Amino acid sequence: MNGAAGLVDRYGRRATDLRVSLTDRCNLRCSYCMPPEGLPWLPKEEILTDAEIVRLIGIAVTRLGVTEVRFTGGEPLLRPGLVDIVTASAALAPRPRLSLTTNAIGLERLASALHAAGLDRVNVSLDTLDPDRFARLAHRRRFDDTIRGLHAAHAEGLRPVKINTVLLRGINDDEAPALLRFALEHGYELRFIEQMPLDAQHGWKREEMITAQEILESLNAWFDLSPDPAERAGAPAETWLVNGGPTRVGVIGSVTRPFCGDCDRTRLTADGQVRNCLFATGETDLRGLMRAGASDEDLANAWRAAMWGKLPGHGIDDASFLQPARPMSAIGG
Fold first, then answer.
1. Is the pTM of this model over 0.90?
2. Is the dihedral of CA 72, 76, 81, 82 positive or negative?
3. From residue 228, how far is each of 239, 244, 246, 296 by CA, in Å?
4. What is the maximal distance between C-alpha atoms in the chain?
5. Which of 128, 136, 41, 22 is nearest to 84 (CA)?
6. Best CA proximity match to 185, nearest among 144, 227, 242, 237
7. How is domain 7-331 classified at the CATH fold level?
8. What residue ranges do the domains of the chain occupy?
């Protein structure tokens, strides 16, 4: 294994972006993520404590070169200690950039406290502008809550506010232009994400997925899109200037336009497992090591070893591809 201080893999990629899942629980039941009845949640004793999460984030930032931390779920706003975790993370030196991926239910109430704690920005999941479609997709009538949370984040200065949208064939696949108009009107940045094989039901079918190309064709019928001259680096989204800019729209083509060669992410699940890829079938247990008395350097070395073994790509196009046993809600975005 390479002895470099950071999270380097054998293909020369360096992980500087840490996604931390704070809970596997969610107050929506989006059909591309979990069934309407929900899932068995992780037992409380298996979930990392606030102190354990802060310790591991500290190791990642001060010893392993992580510069950006994204809090995810499940739904991270359901984590009671969220504000305290953000406060502790913002106090680290060097200070990482801190963001949150959320469905925004409850964000209207928490946006001010999170901003004061040091959160820099948010990504809000919003798949439709139609309340009835929202209920069909999420199996909950919480559209108004999400919209209020979205606007509150922007008003509190958690910017840029980014919207994450998944289009599903026959449900909301006609809404790409309307969603972009909504983003332009309010000053949000819109990102479309290809549906990935990470649903708990294992019902994903490639032929039913709305592809990046289809999304771009839909947008091009209404807007003038031009290539974004800004360097993409390790960003997952390909971006285009809308009507000459400065507003951009992005498409994350994880399936049809994979960006594995430039991936800079490492993931920590709510129960303390390191995942070196969103589609990994193996994990490294930091929770067990930590609770057995491991030192910070022991934990850092285990994390380095986990990342060193990262595969060159997710292999979705390979005939031998196996969908991860964990659904997206238990992995973290």
1. yes
2. positive
3. 6, 10, 10, 41
4. 59
5. 22
6. 242
7. TIM Barrel (3.20.20)
8. 7-331
